[in-house]
Amino acid sequence: MTNQEKGVKVALISADLGRFRGNPGAGHVQQELPAGWIADSFFLDDESYPARPSLSPRLQAKIPKMLGYEMIPGYDYYIWLDSSFSLADPGAVAWLVQACAGRDMAVFKHPHRGSIREELEYIVEAMSAGDRYLSERYQKEPLREQVDLYLADPAFRDDALYAMGAFVYSKEMLARPEKNVMPLWYYHNARYSIQDQLSFPYLAAGVAGNGFRLATFDAGIFDNRYIAFRAGS
């Protein structure tokens, strides 16, 4: 794909359910898109996506994060930004999409750790030390059971971890259910834990045998000029 490709439709999706951070779109820099491109922004909050009694706000927010293409069909590329991120450069959408060219999905490498085992131990140690942020989210989640399940799979190599606060996926992945990692990802968030960085490497490795093509950005999630992070609860 080149920046001159015509008729590219991009959906930018974010959500803040439970009023944790607010609408990141207020901080988006106006985008300069290649000729013929269309980018539509969708922000889901408690008013536009009312609470469902059967789901916690955080698990409900995983639906647009992982199944947004079902809610908003018809786009060539889908960009997800956690509500802690905003577009910080006029070329952000084009840069994010370009990383996914010829691939099914583009993600950022984790900036601090390189395996789900390391991520688990970091979370457990931090909660033991009284980390409120992590404890509120994961204290009652079966994190160790989840990771033990993945590590018991002899076909899985635990040598990757990704920062899943921002990513892009394409309609090419959606056209082939056998390599569409997104429904599996949501299932593992519901079945095991909402710590989605633990499940994604395992699931991505599993669908790779079905032709799933994963790209990584050539910059860090906190170390690029295109998206900006704002700290919050």
UniProtKB/TrEMBL annotation:
Residues 56-217 form the TOD1/MUCI70 glycosyltransferase-like domain. InterPro entries: TOD1_MUCI70_glycTrfase_dom (IPR048354). It comes from the Bacteria. This is TOD1/MUCI70 glycosyltransferase-like domain-containing protein.
